[in-house]
Specification:
This protein is α+β, with helices and mostly antiparallel strands. It has helices spanning 6-15, 40-45, 55-62, 69-87, 95-98, 119-138, 142-159, 166-180, 189-193, 204-224, 228-231, 254-278, 283-300, 306-313, 322-327, 380-398, 463-476, 534-543, 628-649, 668-674, 678-697, 701-732, 737-747, 752-755, and strands at residues 65-66, 202-203, 357-358, 361-362, 428-438, 445-448, 486-495, 501-502, 549-556, 561-566, 572-579, 582-586, 591-595, 600-603, 607-613, 619-626. α3 (55-62) packs across α16 and α8 runs antiparallel to α10 (204-224).
Amino acid sequence: MEARGEGAGVQSADLTSGSGNEDEPVEDTTAQAVKPPEGRMKRIFGFEKEDFSSWHRIVCLLNRPTDPAALGIFRCMFGMLMAIDITQERGLSHLDYKYLDGAPICRFPLFSSLEPLPMDWMYLVYVVMLLGSVGIMLGLFYRLSCLMFISTYWYVFFLDKTAWNNHSYLYGLIGFQLTLMDANRYWSLDGLMKPKKRNADVPLWNYTLLRVQIFIVYFIAGIKKLDADWVEGYSMSYLAHHWLFEPFQMILSVDQVSVLVVHGGGLALDLTAGYLLFFDATRPFGIVFVSYFHCMNSQLFSIGMFAYTMLATSPLFCYPDWPRRFFARFPATLWVLLPITAPGPQPSSSCVYPEVQKGGKKAPKTPSSNTTPKVSQPRFRHKLATVFAFIYVVEQFFLPYSHFITQGYNNWTNGLYGYSWDMMVHSRSHQHVKITYKDGTTGEVGYLNPGVFTHSRRWKDHGDMLKQYAVCLSANLPRYNITEPEIYFDIWVSINERFQQRIFDPRVDIVKADWSPFRPNPWLMPLLVDLSPWRTKFQEIESSLDNQTEIVFIADFPGLHLENFVSEDLGNTSVQVLQGQVTVEITEENKNYTLETGQQMKLPHGAYHKVYTVSEGPSCYMYVYVNTTEAALQQNFTRLLGIQERVRNGTETEPLPPELLPLIATDDEGSEVNATDPVVQLFLRRQRRMKEVKKRREANVMERLNRFTVKKYYLLRRGFLMTAIALRNLAFGLPPVDQLTREVAFANMKEPLQEANQDGPLKEEAGHGEL
């Protein structure tokens, strides 16, 4: 794929001969050159249909000399963003938590034989990756730097499938592409050290591959969003409540913002962004739209450097010489620090140059000793680059739809998340996760805390990870006198606001269960898509409830049952059948109750019960409950707030009892500590946190910038100090334990604000989940 802007690069190459050497006179052949007039297709697309008339013409087209300026600027920005990403999303700042030596951790590599190195050596891996990214940014030892970056990046990437996402995959692809490109021909230290590389042409395929890659990211993401769940507004409906969409709520309802702006706007942008960026006439609009889109994404999601990386790719669609024209506007005194602004790069052996005609005869080649001769006939390297470009493009279009090959990785959604560009199409919520083990020798049955021996939660949705997790658990449980354990998982998931339902068969021992990457997963339960229309009914039911009543919608398969426990806090809980037939067993009473469609019964709190699906088809039912403890707590908070306001405005006529005196104290933290009543203590803590939240939201730009800077400083500080400790250990061995403890404690030092708030977030307090 080629944008119209490449014509500028071609003209520049044709008009100069060795212009990278400023001391050499340039032979001007433009007056005698015979150039055919540009056709309409050339003006729009940058190439003629005749360029595809033969293999020779295709090779010449993809190896056509193009200005290296835009590619060099992108290389610099990509390297800088990856250096930042390594310390954050790649995890350098908390690497010791992930790869602590000797810890019984269950890991999820792509290949089971792939193991992480010892922790200190993993720090060295990250140092190599970081140095590679810095080398890419500076254009220093460019090819070596690219190899350092991509070899360590893909190693870390394959080590942990739970960290996979689309943008991490994209980083690896771009790094691989840059390794094969001549991106160090502009604004690079390599160019300063080697004059033949400085300001030299690059072949057109360098731009083509990057542009096609970004086009695929947008367009395939749009194709994936043609899914009915996205079009109907179920995938990301919660985003409509974000403050970024408040301006739209001035003219639209929240539901309309969700369907029209969040989902409709996202679909339209993904489908059209690649085309808008491609053509000269629409490119300004495209850049504005995608820039607004990515700036919003940077605030909506925790996606690291992805938004900024996509912003850095947009200029690739512009004329390749745009940096020359842009930096030429700066004062001449700054040109020594800025990229080259002189027009016209020097020839490069990586390109195939057209033969310029002089008076009907071929012009002789008169290269100087300091410049590279122009190549007018494709060589083997040019043909190989063309073959690679075609294979890569076909492969990138094929991979998002290759799930019929790797069927073992398919669940309710196809394939391992990360290379399909199905970004944000599916949202999940987990209501119930139970891990049951059975001792293979004694038959003893017990339960495990979900997530034991692992830091990740993504194993809940992927059969391949669940298999790895079960095998890991079976290897660790014998340490606790559980021999030959059988592992069973009962995982309930709702995808895109559907019923909560089982994703895997709870009757199958996953340790011994069959799994293959190339065969469908036999213990995957089907998604009950026939029940999807119920989502409209869900909204009607939820809108009829008061603020204190909660509801959970359940769907289950015939022959299975759900065992549940009603907490003491849920004093008013009932189950109502929406479809099918169920039998409710109250465990303590040893009684069964059969319920048909539309019937309901109240469930005792503080007791277990089982709901059996006895109908021929799936059953659908809902739990309706009120957290009576939380409701009482909120009533007490309302009463305490009224007392506090009356005391402060002087309308309280009765003296306060001793346990309520902390309400009128001016020192929030002191009054919280002095409070003897637990409800008063929670109330004061809630008020203090709400003040902190309000202060953060109302902070001015400088306060926000200062908070951001301090946070990032301590994050980077920890990463680099722990890296220094690890490298010291590798070079000189481990120091005494006391010294190592002091060093790690010094690295773990947190910013003052964070140290002042070590008592945990409000959501961990009883009755304060809404904050």
